[in-house]
Design brief:
The complex is a heterodimer of chains A (200) and B (316). Chain A has 2 domains: 80 residues, Translation Initiation Factor IF3 (2-Layer Sandwich); 108 residues, Hypothetical Protein Ychn, Chain: A, CATH 3.40.1260. Chain A is 32% helix and 24% strand. Chain A has 6 helices and 9 strands, in the order E-H-E-H-E-E-E-H-E-H-E-H-E-H-E. In chain A, the strands form 2 sheets. In chain A, strands 8-7-6-5-9 form a 5-stranded parallel sheet. In chain A, helix 1 runs parallel beside helix 2. Chain A starts with a strand and ends with a strand. In chain A, 34% of the residues are buried. Classes of the chains: A alpha/beta (200), B alpha+beta (316).
Chain lengths: 200, 316
């Protein structure tokens, strides 16, 4: 037989404390708690889950009826980190250290890089960071053929990191039009967090 | 509501900021703020310290220097001994002395519920007012105190926090934001606020709204009292945290890897929280180092301002 607990008209943390007291005193395997606000609903549900209960909530006439059930053997409390983690999508970092792709013909190399940056979109959600260093920072200033593409990427939420030391070296600090100025620590941290690093 | 207009009002009610600022002359502006609340710790002297530090903080967050204060007291004379009130006010005075602020008066009323706080007046140069506006893409965000005071004080109310935790959190809430505010004046700080009732993400959202930019927070770098996630997981979350979340979560994109308990910590209402400083990227590391070297050990670089997506906060 489930025990009943009416915690209506009680402010947090009282509903959790009363639930805790009742659950611990009698090592209950089933309990019904009635609360009348959203915060108490979330907190009591959370508490019961932390003590190994399966929780269901029903809304009746503005009140929340919370039912918790667990095996008769008081199961071990779930660890705090039991909070559902969804599988993470892959994080790809692309580092561009040049304004042209490959060696040989420079004109061809520039065209290839433009095409490469435009085509990066095909990576979809997995494209996580674009890091521009050395000659790569020149892609962020007026006159760059990919400036608009980079601006679009940024608007869509892609983080574009532009090396501040490099901008300073080329005297371009005030002319950068896209991306955020960054430092080596951020670049190294980003590389460490990434699942895959592509160097161009 | 129609508000009276005045050309000398630099920061008024038309935009949510930490305090009002009124220009007196070309090199002087007045900062005014008021804050009071019910006890959050049992010890009256500590409560007085915390309430005063919390009220003074709004002046620091505006880039100013507090000068004078008045006590605001609501006290249940019939139920509580006056010695308690004395201890509260002594705690407040202790923080005013530390802040070089003079108490110029106050007002007490009888009330069923005890409340204490201050009305504070401070000074600032009109050109050096720091508001929640003026973010620039690339700016770094530095937070100077750990999060979790709302959740931990809920655990204290429930009698579930150990004395050691109570002492640690009390000390942190009683700490003035003075030192952090003084250090930041030497750096290219573009905006600043203090973290209080709306929680970390709530106050960051206020900065981001209308800025034309977005922000990214790296949750692993956000300082949090280590006991907080455990208390939050057992349901000791103040109702205000859920209200803050419901109000602002539509602006926030959480990466799937962000633990749901940590989301509540990021919305946890803080009492006398730290400053959230928005500083130019090239000086950010230096400012952080300076803060840490001068005793603000909990300070951390928690994120940055992004050019886009506009008016969104990415938490990863």
């Amino acid at each position: 037989m489930a025990r009943q607990l009416d915690c209506r008209r009680l402010a947090c943390p009282a509903p959790v404390l009363q639930t805790k007291q009742m659950v611990e005193k009698d090592e209950l395997s089933e309990i019904n708690v009635i609360v009348d606000n959203q915060a108490a609903k979330e907190n009591v549900s959370r508490f019961l889950r932390s003590r190994g209960f399966e929780v269901s909530v029903e809304q009746k006439e503005g009140d929340f009826h919370i039912t918790g059930k667990r095996g008769t053997e008081a199961s071990a409390p779930e660890p705090v980190a039991s909070l559902q983690k969804e599988p993470e999508k892959k994080k790809i970092l692309v580092m561009i250290a040049t304004d042209r792709m490959g060696f040989g013909d420079d004109e061809l190399g520039k065209k290839l890089l433009v095409n490469f940056i435009k085509t990066l979109r095909e990576m979809g959600d997995e494209l996580w960071r674009l890091v521009l260093v050395n000659n790569g920072v020149k892609l962020t200033v007026a006159g760059s053929e990919v400036l608009d593409v980079l601006k679009d990427y940024e608007k869509e939420g892609l983080a574009i990191l532009v090396c501040g030391t490099c901008l300073g070296h080329f005297n371009l600090l005030d002319r950068k039009e896209v991306g955020e100025t960054t430092n080596m620590l951020d670049i190294v941290t980003a590389m460490q967090l990434a699942d895959e690093v592509i160097n161009v | 509501m129609k508000l009276p207009a005045d050309p000398n009002l630099i920061v008024g009610l038309d935009r949510a900021d930490d305090a009002g600022v009124y220009k007196i002359s070309d090199d002087l502006a007045l900062i005014q703020t008021v804050d009071f609340f019910t006890p959050i710790v049992d010890d009256p002297y500590s409560f007085g310290q915390i309430a005063a530090a919390n009220a003074l903080s709004d002046v620091y967050a505006m880039g100013g220097v507090p000068k004078t204060a008045m006590n605001l007291v609501a006290f249940p004379v019939k139920d509580l001994d006056l010695s308690i009130l004395r201890k509260i006010i002594e705690g407040g005075l202790d923080k005013m002395r530390e802040a070089d602020v003079v108490l110029v008066g106050g007002h007490t009323i009888e009330d069923a519920e005890l409340k204490y706080g201050l009305s504070v007046t401070g000074f600032v140069h009109p050109d050096r007012v720091l508001t929640k506006r003026n973010l620039k893409p690339g700016d770094r965000l530095i937070l100077t105190k750990p999060l979790g005071t709302g959740i931990i004080t809920t655990a204290i109310k429930g009698g579930l926090a150990a004395k050691q935790i109570i002492d640690k959190v009390t000390l942190c809430m009683a700490e003035l934001n003075r030192k952090a505010a003084e250090i930041m004046t030497a750096y290219p700080v573009h905006a600043c606020t203090d973290i209080t009732g709306f929680g970390f993400l709530g106050h960051l959202a206020e900065m981001v709204v209308g800025s034309g930019f977005g922000a990214r927070i790296r949750v692993s770098r956000v300082p949090v009292f280590p006991e907080t996630p455990e208390f939050a997981a057992m349901g000791l979350v103040p109702a205000g945290a859920y209200r803050n979340r419901d109000f602002r979560q539509s602006m926030v994109d959480f990466a799937p890897s962000v633990d749901s308990v940590l989301k509540d910590v990021l919305f946890d209402p803080q009492t006398s929280g730290g400053l959230l400083i928005c500083v130019a990227p090239e000086k950010a590391e230096e400012l952080l180092k300076d803060l840490k070297e001068k005793g603000i050990a909990g300070a951390a670089m928690v994120g940055e301002v992004l050019a886009g997506p506009v008016e969104r906060i990415v938490v990863e």
